[in-house]
Amino acid sequence: MQQINILRGALKDAPDFTLYFEFSIPRMGKRADAVVVIGDCIFVIEFKVGGATFDRHAIEQVEDYALDQVAAPLCLAVTDLGAVIRMIAAHHKTPFDANQWAASGYRPTPTIIEAARALYARHEVADITRSDADAINLGRTQDIIAGVIEGAKVGHRKAICFVTGVPGAGKTLAGLNIAAQRSESHADEHAVFLSGNGPWSMCCARP
Fold first, then answer.
1. Which of 21, 13, 32, 20 is nearest to 89 (CA)?
2. What gap in Å lies between CA 61 and CA 46, rounded to an integer?
3. Measured between alpha carbons, how far is residue 17 from residues 4, 12, 36, 65 in Å?
4. How many Å apart are CA 82 and CA 80, to the nearest integer?
5. 3-state secondary structure at position 20
6. Sheet containing 30-38, strands listed edge to edge, beginning at the edge strand earlier in sequence
7. What's the whole-model pTM score?
8. Would you state the torsion angle of the CA atoms of residues 127, 128, 129, 134, taken in this order, to the nearest 10 degrees?
9. Does 197 score more than 70 pLDDT?
């Protein structure tokens, strides 16, 4: 309720705007307190109601929300919020369809750390990344590798699999999925996922 009251006062003299509360960011599995769209300018607002200082954690939280930002975070008192929004919005008057923007997908592939965090938080694969391979091909690749792992485990053998494809095809995603699935459903195994700028490797082995 305090956020509503604050924004009601801050936006009372603003030009036409669209306001979203608890704006979901699927790739991250997080929600921004408020997003205001005025012209072609998008404000991501994180409230710390009752806070007396701008903690580093709070600033990093906003930076995280606006990962593809074109401006640095601003730390504002409630009394300054409306004036700053109006000042910035005055330079962003290009027509912009806020509803179409809100309904569109967020397509950049996350970093390996972001993807792993979201995956282990049990978010759906479709929410954390995009891939050019369809679900059938990804599933088939994962099933084949899982079969190789199981065969190596039963036969006490070592195995290595190479997955090829263009950037964005889903190779890293397949590795993350396999490692997560083996960790969750096979208590006698330790799944390790390694990734870098070069080829990635994934190993499932007995403790």
1. 13
2. 8
3. 15, 10, 7, 20
4. 6
5. strand
6. 18-25, 30-38, 41-45
7. 0.51
8. -50
9. no
